[in-house]
Specification:
Strands 1, 2, 3, 4, 5 and 6 form a six-stranded antiparallel beta sheet that branches. The chain is 14% helix and 37% strand. It has four helices and 14 strands. The radius of gyration is 24 Å and the shape is globular. The chain has two domains: 3-167, Thiol Ester Dehydrase, Chain A; 189-305, no CATH class. It is mostly beta strands. Bound molecules: zinc ion. The site of zinc ion has 8 residues, from loops.
């Protein structure tokens, strides 16, 4: 064992000592569950689910964490917050892990939340990982579990994970930066499978027939989770567009047009317009789907305008 290994083990032991320490105890939600916040959330999310309005409205389950947030002004002193989290962050800062990024969260719902419910919660530092190296840099994942209660009854669990890390040294820029990769997950896998076969697939709710794009796990119209797909004909029109000048992104060459294309089927998608210069793109312009081979690993659906 080298001195470096011993140092790392000792540091990890100091981090591990935070596991199980409370980050907040019997903390209070700033407001009871209430209809205005539910309405604002649904409007922001575009969620028209019928369960969230009317006299028997419940709160969208995914709002769980919102009821525990301190807002811009933060939670006032003495509301159950402990210093454990600050101490852990200071320790990691001191070791050079000065950057932080939220990586993921998991929620479990135990009871619906209704307007008038008062919210209390406990949070505990559940785990601190050994040192990990990611593309962003080297650091430690910190998982915090928050148990939320409504009127004293267990209502749900919100578990979130951050990476506190020392930023990686930037490599000298490659000759040509690659375009960002799409994030493919279980909710949109089918769309990207279609792209690979040069088919543009639109999700269709099998409950009510509503088409939806981009892909989502459920129907905004009737809340059904069941769906199939229809293949887009490929015809569309430019519904709206912007011309990007600034900020510059690697792999993109400004100025260029980013268009919102309305497909013949009625749904809209954001894409690039090919075949005409950026300053010739116009609202209402007819366009036709094609597939653009961007690089060895990436092919994207784009829309060709008739340049004539
Ligand atoms: Zn539906």
């Amino acid at each position: 064992m080298t001195d470096g290994d011993r140092e790392e083990d000792a540091f990890l032991a100091r981090l591990k000592a935070f596991e199980g320490r409370p980050a907040a105890t019997a903390a209070q939600g700033k407001d009871p569950v209430n209809q205005p916040m539910i309405r604002h959330w649904c409007e922001a999310m575009g969620d028209t689910g019928p369960a969230y309005t009317g006299p028997d409205a419940i709160a969208p389950p995914t709002m769980l964490q919102a009821w525990t947030m301190g807002g811009l002004s933060g939670h006032t002193a003495g509301t159950g917050r402990s210093t454990a989290y600050d101490e852990l962050f200071a320790l990691l800062d001191g070791a050079g892990c000065t950057s932080v990024v939220a990586t993921d969260c998991e929620q479990e719902y135990l009871r619906p939340l209704r307007p008038g419910d008062t919210i209390t919660f406990d949070a505990v530092i559940e785990s601190v990982s050994p040192r990990k190296t990611t593309k962003l840099g080297t650091g430690h994942f910190v998982t915090t579990r928050m148990d939320v209660r409504a009127n004293g009854e267990p209502a749900g669990t919100h578990r979130f994970r951050i990476l506190k890390y020392a930023p990686a040294q930037r490599k000298p820029r490659a000759a040509k930066a690659l375009r960002p990769r799409p994030v493919v997950n279980r909710d949109n896998q089918g769309f990207w499978d279609g792209v690979r076969e040069h088919r543009l697939l639109i999700q269709r709710c099998t409950g009510c027939g509503t088409l939806r794009f981009p892909w989502l796990p459920g129907c905004n119209h009737c809340a059904s989770p069941d769906w199939d797909t229809v293949e887009a004909s490929g015809a569309g029109t430019v519904f709206s567009y912007v011309v990007m000048h600034h900020p510059p992104f690697p792999a993109f060459d400004p100025p260029y047009a980013v268009a919102l294309v309305e497909l013949a089927e009625g749904v809209r998608m954001i894409s690039n317009i090919t075949g005409v210069p950026y300053d010739k793109v116009r609202i209402g312009m007819p366009v036709q789907l094609e597939f653009l081979r961007v690089d060895d690993d990436l092919e994207l659906p784009v829309f060709r305008a008739d340049g004539g």
